[in-house]
Write a structure and sequence with these properties.
heterodimer, A: about 110 residues, mainly beta, four-stranded antiparallel β-sheet, about 50% strand, B: about 120 residues, seven-stranded mixed β-sheet
Chain lengths: ~110, ~120
């Protein structure tokens, strides 16, 4: 069972910022939050991850609340190619390892 | 550097048959995981292998098996195929065993193998 909650769909105008929320209220103290995206029928693409500090890379920014119960992925200037399903993932401890658990993600549509 | 590669790209089988899917991890990565993704859902974890040993298993029947070779490549086998096994099968590699607090264990996914069972 997924440990994250995301809105099923969102849309954004091209050139504007896309802010994708994720709730992970049961996250434990040492679990990272990972974000991936999947463009139709391709393998998921890694975007960014974080523990408790905000993170930024060439693709996106990740804002994690102080209580770590939620996070927001920010695509600062969305393009049509950012249209994809975005997954927020935490890992479930199982048998000595940590298993990434995917939900249904957020389908982001970027329109002209 | 090459990313994760998978073969074949597409595969069509009939019910009751057996199938073997292959995965080559990113060079230097020692962990391989397998996922099943049915249409409209997120990927579901099947197996994780690290240093040729099974280190995690999802809620899948014994018809699903896997192994990892000394060069860290991996095979996923599915026996007695059912119509419900039709899915995109994804392989992902990481440097180390997936752990909750290690930065070096980001998974990178391959393009997947599309399996259709008729």
């Amino acid at each position: 069972d997924a440990k994250t909650t995301q809105p099923p769909s969102m849309d954004c105008a091209e050139g504007r910022a896309a802010n994708l929320p994720c709730n992970h209220s049961t996250i434990s103290g040492n679990e990272y939050v990972y974000w991936y995206r999947q463009i139709h029928s391709q393998g998921p693409q890694y975007i960014i991850h974080g523990l408790k500090n905000n993170e930024t890379n060439e693709m996106a920014s990740l804002i994690i609340t102080e209580d770590r119960k939620s996070s927001t992925l920010i695509l600062p200037h969305a393009t049509l190619r950012d249209t994809a399903v975005y997954y927020c993932i935490v890992r479930v401890a199982s048998g000595g390892s940590y298993i990434p658990t995917f939900g249904r993600g957020t389908s982001l549509i970027v329109h002209p | 550097d090459a990313g994760v590669t998978q073969s074949p790209t597409h595969l069509i089988k009939t019910r009751g048959q057996q199938v073997t899917l292959r995965c080559s991890p990113i060079s230097g990565h020692k962990s391989v995981s397998w996922y099943q993704q049915v249409l409209g859902q997120g990927p579901q974890f099947i197996f994780q292998y690290y240093e040729k040993e099974e280190r995690g298993r999802g809620n899948f029947p014994d018809r699903f098996s896997a192994r990892q070779f000394p060069n860290y490549s991996s095979e996923l086998n599915v026996n007695a195929l059912l119509l419900g096994d039709s899915a995109l099968y994804l392989c992902a590699s990481s440097l180390f065993l997936l752990a909750g607090s290690t930065r070096g264990d980001t998974q990178y996914f391959g393009p997947g193998t599309r399996l259709t069972v008729l």
